[in-house]
Amino acid sequence: MKNDLFAELMRSATEALEHARGKRELRTTFLPAPPKPMSAAEVKRLRARVHASQAVFAHYLNVSTKLVQAWESDRRQPEGAALRLLRLAQTFPGLVFESPELPSKLHSSNLYAGKASSTRPLRVAEGSGTTATRTRNSRRVPVAKAGVSQAR
After folding, report:
1. How confident is the model at residue 97 (pLDDT cuts 50, 70, 90)?
2. 80-91 vs 40-49: helix crossing angle, rounded to 10
């Protein structure tokens, strides 16, 4: 066992020496630059552009409504995968928000509450003035602002 380990270390050292002398090419991977930070105003503008409530916007991004509210109030900034997804959505909204031509009314699509225990669809009813709630982990939590009702 020790001989195998020593042989592997010697091979690695030989390859490193060959590379240093220019006799060996190593595989190189170029990574894209990280996305630019996104301000609260940019998040609000993107959400307004796709005609979505904070809850629906959060659902599409697979984040909580509270996180979207924190982004928009400038208490937190999007980071990591969420930031990358927001930048993609800014450039290609149809990629993230279902269709290339975003509907001005979302009532035609069935939406499901993110991270909810049940999979009953939500139906968007513009101007209904109701707030839907859904059971999550044995407690009722608001799913969306006015305009969203649960399908029965």
Report:
1. confident
2. 50
The residue type found at 69 is: Q
Angle at 138 between CA 134 and CA 146, to 5 degrees: 20
Average pLDDT, the chain: 74
DSSP SS3 for 110 = strand
Cβ neighbours of residue 137 under 8 Å, at least 6 residues apart? 117
Instruction: Tell me the β-bridge partners of 133.
Output: 142
Residue 98 Ramachandran class (φ > 0 left, ψ -120 to 50 alpha, else beta)? left
Rounded Cα distance, 121 and 48, in Å: 23
Domain boundaries, the chain: 40-150
Tokens in use for 48? 């307004």
pLDDT for the residue numbered 26:
77
Q: Token digits for 37?
A: 């930070």
| Single pTM value for the model | 0.52
d(CA 143, CA 150): 10
Phi, psi of 79 (to 5 degrees): -145, 165
